[in-house]
Amino acid sequence: MTDPTVTVEASSSGLTFPRLLLRHAAERPAAPALREKDLGIWQTWTWSRLRDEVELLSAGLASQGFQRGQTLALIGENRPRLYAGIIAAQVLGGVPVPLYQDAVAQEMVYVFQNAEIAFAIVEDQEQVDKLMEIHETCPALTHVYYDDPRGLRNYDDPLLVSYDRLIEFGRQWLAQHPGFFEAEVAKGRPDDIAAIFYTSGTTGHPKGVLHGHRNLIEMSGIASRLENLGPDEEVLAYLPIAWIGQNIFSYAQWLVSGFTVNCPESAETVSADMREIGPTYYFAPPRVLEALLTQVTIRMEDAAAPKRALFNHFMGVARKVGGRLLDGDRNVPLLDRVKYWLGNLLIYAPLRNSLGMSRVRVAYTAGEAIGPDLFVFYRALGINLKQLYGATETAVFSCVQPNGQVKPDTVGPPLAGVELKITDDGEVLIRSPGLLLEYYRNPQATAEVKDGEGWYHTGDAGYFDTDGHLKIIDRAKDVGRLAQGALFAPKYIENKLKFFPYIKEAVAFGNGRDRVMTFINIDYEACGNWAERRNIPYTGYIDLAGRAEIYQLVAQCIEQVNADLAADPMMADSQIHRFLVLHKELDPDDGELTRTRKVRRRAIADKYAPLIEALYDDRASCFIETQVRFEDGRVGSVSADLRLVDAKTFPAAAARRAA
Predict the structure, then answer these.
(1) Where are the alpha helices (DSSP H) in 145-264?
(2) Which of 14, 64, 157, 364 is the most buried if burial means most Cβ atoms within 10 Å?
(3) Would you state the pLDDT for residue 202?
(4) Residues 197-234: pLDDT tens digits?
(5) Which among 549, 197, 594, 137 is positioned nearest to 395, based on CA atoms?
(6) What is the CATH classification number for the domain harbouring 510?
(7) Helix H segments across 483-588?
(8) Does residue 371 fall inside a structural domain?
(9) Considering its fold, how many domains does the chain have in total?
(10) DSSP state letters, 438-469
(11) Band of pLDDT at residue 1, cut at 50, 70 and 90
(12) Within a domain: 319
């Protein structure tokens, strides 16, 4: 059997994603391309079935007037029909535009208007309702095709057509236009626009990043060859297809390498579905890994004392030598190897199995910086977790940690074909085959990030270590100085805080100030479990977040972080002096986080300015009332009288780890 990865390397210059599909369908027609769990049963789509579906779907869209250069919105969870929709648009020379399925209707307006979207394929009634809501403000939208008909029986609007009916249109079109599909695929060129990915918009309107077939396929091929990815890999597609990270892993690399993509039944079943599939190639942003660690911590706290003691003992062994063994270090003493082997038998292997990671051959984390402690935890278990560095504008892959050269505080050296340099003020610049073509209809923004020599200005601050690995400090715009001139890197501090299972989110302040202060979001599940085991009553999130016992718990976490910071000469002055626990979770619907769960620092600083000033004024409490948007779209408010608490700090010269 031909290895598709090798084939791609030999002739990538003329490839498009539809041509890759046809290649797999011709060489491996009966092999599984996609699986979807429906009503508890995994349904398999072979490469030949997918090819036939794409042929009918592209013909159906053509029959409805979809033409080359037009945009097609795709909104929903990971579903085979949405994947087919992406390829079908590309067959016709159109441009797929995936959107976040959890975005509220008004968040979609800008994208629909900016991209002049006339056609959309959506998953279900929830997404149909959003598009019906914005239709008047997006008059270009004239065709909406829905996959799941549940709840739509009484919808009577000429805008709406079922996916199944669209397929029938395609069948009729092909009967009248023999050879249509092959001819359309042949028209495609590698430099055609393959997709528009809209950025998270942390500082304003999202920007549409244009990527061509060539740059997505070339970077996916380089990364796939680095990890020897092939048709036997299993991937779980559980993150939004609008996020380029998921799109690269479960679409671009999928079509390059020919492996199988598995679509979970729902967000609630991801953990169970992952255990059933046992992915071999896995990708998770830090927030997912943090959530999994929180679940592990909760289970261990509920366990009997002997089991907890056994877990803590062997995790100490794992942290000491697990990463070294994973990297093939032959200098690990025999006694430590025996201890790790026993720990693997009793603890690590069962834990990997419960996480669904027993078969993981390579795992990546990216999207934002990961705390070193969190990273070390997974590698200690024997999971080959590695960091990669990139952005929407670089087709994700810029730097990757090679096997045997994995460090907790770097993102590895540049990939083959990628050039990196650091400016005098510390900004990371990238030149790569995977760079964006441009920002859609935004030449000014394009000129701001992509200079005349082809360097992309990332906006990240970093430097190379002695081994040539890139180390990212923070976003350049977020890195600042305390009033006395000491370095202030908020993300570095926040990641240390988020390692603790009780802290879900943190926001640090200190630029231009004399001290560092933080907002804390507790993890409701972890803190609730902790409180219940201690018979501490609470009525809900606001009540729990304000409990004195929870403040004491958070203070202990901050104390440990401050001890670590005190031991770091560069960060000793950035110890946290005061903190508060917010009365609500930071939420994308309230404009506090992006859809990829990144903190909108400026928005939070403006929204909670009275709380920041109260922290720096050394007040003991501050009343705050905050507007919130509920899941059903209603707007209300929550209020609380928040406590502002001092944290224990340590002299830099006498740093010690807190007990």
Answers:
(1) 163-176, 180-187, 213-226, 244-247, 253-257
(2) 364
(3) 55
(4) 998 765 568 899 999 999 999 999 999 999 999 999 99
(5) 197
(6) 3.30.300.30
(7) 490-498, 524-533, 541-545, 548-566
(8) no
(9) 3
(10) EETT-HHHHHHHB-TTS-EEEEEEEEE-TTS-
(11) very low
(12) no
Euclidean distance between CA atoms 46 and 134, whole angstroms: 37
Cβ atoms within 10 Å of 464's Cβ, excluding its own:
16
Tell me, yes or no, whether 509 and 445 share the same domain.
no
Question: Within its chain, how far is the Cα of 2 from the centroid?
Answer: 32
Angle at the Cα of 80 from the Cα atoms of 75 and 85, rounded to 5 degrees: 55
Binned at pLDDT 50, 70 and 90, residue 597 comes out as confident
523-542: per-residue pLDDT in tens? 999 999 999 989 999 999 99
Helix axes 180-187, 47-63, angle to 10 degrees: 90
Burial environment of residue 268 by CB neighbours within 10 A (0 to 12, 13 to 18, 19 or more): exposed
pLDDT per residue as tens digits for the range 249-302: 999 999 999 999 999 999 899 999 999 999 999 999 988 998 898 888 888 888
CATH number of the domain encompassing residue 150:
3.40.50.12780
Q: pLDDT tens digit string along 406-427? A: 988 889 999 999 999 999 878 9
Q: Which residue has the tokens 């040539």?
A: 468
3 state SS of 12: helix
> How far apart (Å, rounded) are the C-alpha atoms in residues 104 and 129?
10
544 and 531 in contact (C-beta within 8 Å)? yes
pTM of the model: 0.83
166 shares its domain with 47: yes
Judge if 174 and 219 occupy the same domain. yes
Answer yes or no: is 468 within a domain.
yes
Residues 520 and 632 placed together within one structural domain of the fold? yes
Is the same domain home to 61 and 110?
yes
What is the domain extent for residue 616? 480-654
Tokens encoding 190: 């590698």
> At CA 332, angle to CA 325 and CA 341, rounded to 5?
60
Q: Does one domain contain both 36 and 127?
A: yes
Start-to-end Cα distance in the chain: 58
What percent of the chain has pLDDT above 90?
Answer: 76
